[in-house]
Amino acid sequence: MIASPNALPSTRDLRIDFFRGLALVMIFVNHVPGNPLSALTQRNWGLSDSADLFVLLAGISSALAYGRFFDRNAAGAGLMAVFSRIWSLYIMHLMMFLVIAALCVVAAERLNDPTYLETLGIDVFLQAPAGFIVDVLTLRFLPGYLDILPLYIILLAMVPVLVALNRRHWLLPLLLSLGFYAGANLAGLNLPNTRTASAWFFNPFAWQLLFVIGFSIGRALQGQGPLGEIRPRLRHVITALAVLVTLAGIVLSAPWREIDGLENAYLVNPALLGAFSKTNFHPTRLVDLMAKFWLVLVLVPMASAWLRSAFAAPLIWMGQHSLEVFVLGNVLAVAGGILATTYGFQPWLMVAINGIGIGAMLGLAALLEWRKTAMASLASRPRPLPVAAE
């Protein structure tokens, strides 16, 4: 059940952090080609994947993090907070570009394997670095695997406008968002990507719809939307529909095809699913994701004790330090993919890549959480009294 805003606890909703951490693990796993763990990730059990989940949760957390500034008539502080986060994303994106480009060059020159250099499009940059460097700085040149943070930068820049519209009426951000979404799918609106002489893989004019839906949910949790008590009968109907949609997504995606001998055991031709565009965020992705989102709300109450257990803590830490963990995971996924393509997809190597990659992400999250806790503890200590001179 979704309670009214006044009934919601004021504590942090750990479900957001937990599932954002889980999405980061799935993104890492899916970015390593030939990874057997991919069979367990969201993309093989429905029509949406970890990127959809990450963007939805980003919208919710952005509303919760920045909306409070504007609600307290501190628009200047809110704008600075948003700009500071955008700047951090931008710097991290450029650093990740540099490190991943270096990995691809080393693989091509030292390991004699140019696969990633060509697959990610780094070779295009190296052919004319003077011509493409400005495009890199202006986010007009996006190699493969380096398109999530630029999308998030665009989405986060929308937050002040979304808050202003939401304060007038909760429907206004959604109406504006639907207009952009229609423009992306009907008029072909997108941003250019000079790497491929085409456009962004994650079309921001389309993907902003999912972000704005998440933003509207977050604002409703803050009392700026139509969130209220849902009658039991209606709740049961919605839950039943969510179960049916989720099961339909599993049947359509046919995850059992990963099992040897069942590759052709599907009810719907997988080629037809290719028409469900990820670039323009096909509506089926939204329906599938929102069904799963509803079931999580029903099955995982905010006060669930296991969210405060040692089992959940590592993923929660990852979700709370998502930027740093995402960047590390992306770099390690490229490094692991280079090793796998160079030396073969041997079981022991895939185990090592997954173990080291996920372990490093968890380790970084734990380190950052320890630093945050230590700094908070240090700041709360009383200042020592000055020692009087004799």
General description of the model:
With 390 residues, the chain is mainly α. The protein has one domain (11-255, 272-374). It is built from 16 helices and 2 strands. It has helices at residues 14-31, 50-71, 75-110, 115-119, 122-127, 129-137, 148-157, 159-168, 171-186, 204-221, 232-253, 270-273, 283-299, 313-320, 322-343, 347-380, and strands at 192-193, 198-199. The protein has a two-stranded antiparallel ribbon. Strand 1 and strand 2 form a beta hairpin. The chain is globular and about 55 Å long. The relative contact order is 0.16.
Q: Termini separation (Å)? A: 67 Å
Number of strands: 2
Provide the residue-averaged pLDDT.
90
Helix content: 55-70%
Outline:
The chain has 390 residues and is mainly α. The protein has 16 helices and two strands.
